[in-house]
Amino acid sequence: MTPPESVTEAQVLDALRPIVDPDFRKSIVDLGFVKNVAIEGARVSFDIELTTPACPIKEEFERDAHARVSALAGVEDVSVTMTAQARPSPGAVETDRENMLPGVQRVIAVASGKGGVGKSTAAINIALALHKAGARVGVMDCDVYGPSLPLLTGTGGRPSTQGKKILPMEGLGLKLMSIGYFTDDDSPVIWRGPMVHGLIRQFLTDVLWEELDYLIVDMPPGTGDAALTLTQNAPLSGAVIVTTANDLSLIDARKGLEMFRKVDVPVLGIVENMSYFVPPDLPDRKYYIFGEGGGKRVADELGIDFLGEIPIDPTVVEEGDLGRPIVMSHPGSPVADAYEKLAGQVTRTLAVLESK
User: Fold this and answer.
1) In contact, 124 and 139? CB cutoff 8 Å
2) Of 203, 153, 205, 210, nearest to 182 (Cα)?
3) What contacts 40, CB < 8 A, 6 or more positions away?
4) Looking at residue 205, what is its pLDDT?
5) Which residues pair with 271 in a beta bridge?
């Protein structure tokens, strides 16, 4: 009896070709995502290399690819390895990154036009969602006058140094830097513009971040000196605007967006925090305490993406004050799921922008 012929690489690629990346709107084969196809008799293995380790449909790609190749005649075993390789930003931004943040692939600013909208909470939970998805992530807390990163991560002490470089703190699987590690809890920070500018420059140039897929920058609230210093000096890949649905926050969100546009930093979208409340005893009810639809309306008016709504949950504050952000402390909860979805949207939007 003649043994069946082995499947060919061309057949494997043809089987995978119908899998389309929804953001790039092209086949993963045509995009060059399929790599290292190896065939040993009835066993087939290959890699799918995505543009971000935090791809929200990574598991869907893996399942679909496995099923399609398994269906080929003569195939008895299929091994799919999911990998990621960031595509560097072109032009001046890449040059700045090489000089200022060597080893950091992408820098994402999380900003708000005003304080009190949950910006820092959003920043740390986005970072943890990316880390959970397999990315190497750092967080730089640039809220000079109200640093919250030590509290939100349950970390403390003074950073150590290596030569002339400052070593970031580590906690929750993240690399961390904040002015909060250099000040006493009860000491107010009273700094003028030049001092703030110097500190931010030091965080950008003197911290040994090493290899990171994403550096999340928790921006100072508003559009004052500290925020302007960052937007003008940091090699930002993109920005996320955090707002609430009430009119005052939305007005300030518009100001923040215009600040980024003036310095040619892409705004990846607006996320509406504390959007609605679902009573535990009435899970089918939603109460829009601060108004409904404001974030989406502003996003539509300004021609940017609306990244979604984050519900109100008292657990977010309670756990955050104990150094246990919701993505880590309550995985699978509606708020944690919302942050994980948000992180996936942000990174894929950024990957599409960088491919143009």
Assistant:
1) yes
2) 203
3) none
4) 85
5) 242, 308
* pLDDT higher than 60, residue 190: no
**What span, in angstroms and rounded, lies between the C-alpha atoms of 154 and 168?**
15
Per-position b or e across 237-255, b if 16+ CB within 10 A of its CB: bbbbbbbbbeeebbebbbe
Give the Cα separation of 350 and 189 in Å (integer).
Answer: 34
Give 265-323 pLDDT, tens digit per residue. Answer: 899 999 999 888 888 888 888 888 878 888 888 888 888 899 999 999 999 989 988 99
Residue 113: partners with Cβ closer than 8 Å, 6 or more residues away: 221, 222, 223, 241, 243, 249, 251, 252, 253, 254, 255, 256
Residue 280: C-alpha distances to residues 107, 292, 312, 326, 334 (Å): 37, 20, 12, 17, 12
3.90.1150.10, 3.40.50.1440, 3.40.50.920, 3.30.300.130: CATH of 9-84 = 3.30.300.130
DSSP letters spanning 21-42: ETTTTEETTTTT-EEEEEEETT
Residue 9's φ and ψ, nearest 5 degrees, are -60, -35
